């Protein structure tokens, strides 16, 4: 039995995953519940303490200390998620299921991955270290065509976009709008007439880190949910951008704390959206939430021992927006902090 050193007390970690589809989710650690509540809309640019008070918890201590603590129920889907859905209507007929609408993207021709590069290498072999690979979409469950009627979910299957590169950056300050960097995958895609969605996960600290995912497709389908998300306002984007996390390999505490509960990113942390001519960048500021910082305090010290899966998608709320489809999914394996590089960013002229 090993002990973990936590950089932060895991205050309110369950609140971080409160935006959920699950009626009955996997149990979480009771100690995550019996702490002072922290708001998910905490102050912007809040930094992790560099030398926080450290606490050591063994699994036996956690179980003993929380033996009689009742678990909080997961939030279930709110009715307002289904604007326009007739609650007494019958599920779509098989004939309706067969009809493709403009909201359901068609896979396009294969993209030449060889033109893209990032500083974190891709390695599709099992047990590889300090690398990424594309995660199988069927590992994630998303809302089905009939979700509004029966809450059913299905394996996600094929993603809408191709993950073509991952960058792993560090700097003395937070790195915003990284898609402006000359030679990055988003700029290469733009030169080829392709569209990119860039997810920049920003990790605060005495050294700031960013893990940047570049998802590419030939073009947006006009009228699709993805197109409406890309060209929508920030309120719409914040209410729809969803992350499904998973930790297939890691300590028991980390795996149970993170779970696989879907999370609406814009309601958990601050997200900044930069719309370029042929891309949308989403800067996900983990430092804006004390709850998310608590998660990091649990994870960052053992990151090299973890395999983490992340799926990104736009939440579908009404029958014509379903079934949900992944934007893309990634597996990051045994990441080394020392492998991050300092990016060369041009002055930001987007503001």
UniProtKB/TrEMBL annotation:
Listed InterPro entries: EDR2-like, EDR2_C
Biased composition, class Acidic residues, residue ranges: 74-83
Protein species of origin: Capsicum baccatum (Peruvian pepper)
Residues of the Protein ENHANCED DISEASE RESISTANCE 2 C-terminal domain: 132-336
Protein name listed in UniProt: Protein ENHANCED DISEASE RESISTANCE 2-like
Segments of skewed composition (Basic and acidic residues): 50-59
Location of the region described as Disordered in the Swiss-Prot/TrEMBL record: 37-59, 73-95
PANTHER family reported for this sequence: ENHANCED DISEASE RESISTANCE-RELATED, PROTEIN ENHANCED DISEASE RESISTANCE 2-LIKE
